[in-house]
Fold this sequence. Notes:
Low-confidence stretches: 1-47, 248-252, 286-303, 372-382
Strand order of the largest sheet: 10-9-13-14-15-12-11-25
Shape: globular
Radius of gyration: 22 Å
Mean pLDDT: 76
Number of helices: 7
Oligomer: single chain
Largest sheet: 8 strands, antiparallel
Helix content: 10-25%
Amino acid sequence: MAFSHTVLANDSGSDKDSPIIFIHPSEQIDAAPGSDEQLQVKRQPGFKYDADRAAIETDMGLVSEQSGIPLDKVKSSIAFQDAFYEYAEKVRARYPDQISGVWVQPVPATLGGIRFVGNVPLALSFEVQKRGQGDQIRLVTGGKILEQNHAEYTRAVCQAVSEMDITNFICEYNVPLGRIDVEIHTPDKTTVPSQSDILQSIQKRANRSQLMENGLLLSPDDIHIEIKKSNGSVFVPTFHRGGMGAFRVNNPHLQCTTGWSVSGPVGDGLVTAGHCDYDRGGLKLYTVNHFRMFRMDYWFAPWTQDAAYYTNPGQPSVPYFYADFNDIRPVRRVKPVNTMVGRQVCRYGRKSNFRSCSHTVTSTSAIMSFRSLGFPSFPVYPFFLAPMVATTNDTSDFGDSGGGWSWGETAWGVHSGRSESGAVGYFSDLERIESYFGLTVKRLPL
């Protein structure tokens, strides 16, 4: 019996007569904030409004178009991924504190894996084989780090690398391979310590770290180090309702994109990338047609998290976002970070101004130290911007920072930047942002 999953059918026109709930920033709202009357407003001309299934259909079509993978294979693979992660949640409940990692292979594959700390439970292995699911569910033994500790262990490795005066590098936990990858960029490889010297530094730190007790990360099998010759920075930032344009009050030529509407400890507002307003001067927002500007008040953005929380007194923050320049969607859910690896995801930024869905999540614990790119207020080394989600195939432009990553009507994160080569994109996931700042992303009921 194959691992069962359902492919979404086409649902064209199914939301044609459904009520439209949308507030444009330029409209006058007389009803009390948060009331039902406030949300029942007219369609904005020129925009389409997707129901959840239609939104997912749209995104799957974009994946097919932008990747060249046939649409039926995209649908089958994504439906499998949904079913697999639901199954993995049940496995987590049955075997708490035994899971080292969960992932799926990228589209168009229909394969998922679960790595256990120690041995695979025999009962689960027998269950998978009895159901004939062995070709789609890979159960792996020998995990060393529990999945909830990936970021902490990765940060400890980063700290050990920085103690060798290395300042331009990325560390990330590789879930499918069960190891920590370290990528160092330097214009001259001869100035960087050897891999064995770096491993020794990590070992010394392990001996004085509670996180790395029992010598878990001391072998080359547990840590993969790659040294690349490069003159640039390892990370390049790519400078309400989510997806609006924003520019700095002190320098209107540096623009960003807003992320998501939120409720927070000092009022409603939005989140965007922390580096968008690095000198704390404040942001102004504008709509598609560059009218109705209003100022956002900066509240808090620690440098260890590339995210910032702004309030907008007197302006409604509603649970909608720009999925594309003419596609406005409601927010229904926030994506859990432990269900991302291997999944397809889409990005929208106001500068590039198109919805890009040719991205697969490769890591959810990317931690980096990078050159400050001439921003005088950035802190001195060691400076770690972490943890972030890494994806394949970045398509962002300068000005897309802060924009939303999403799938269908599910909010995933806030765009931060890309690798120097453009092969990797990075965003801060909303689950961590909500927890760190004490925020709640605004969303409509399911």
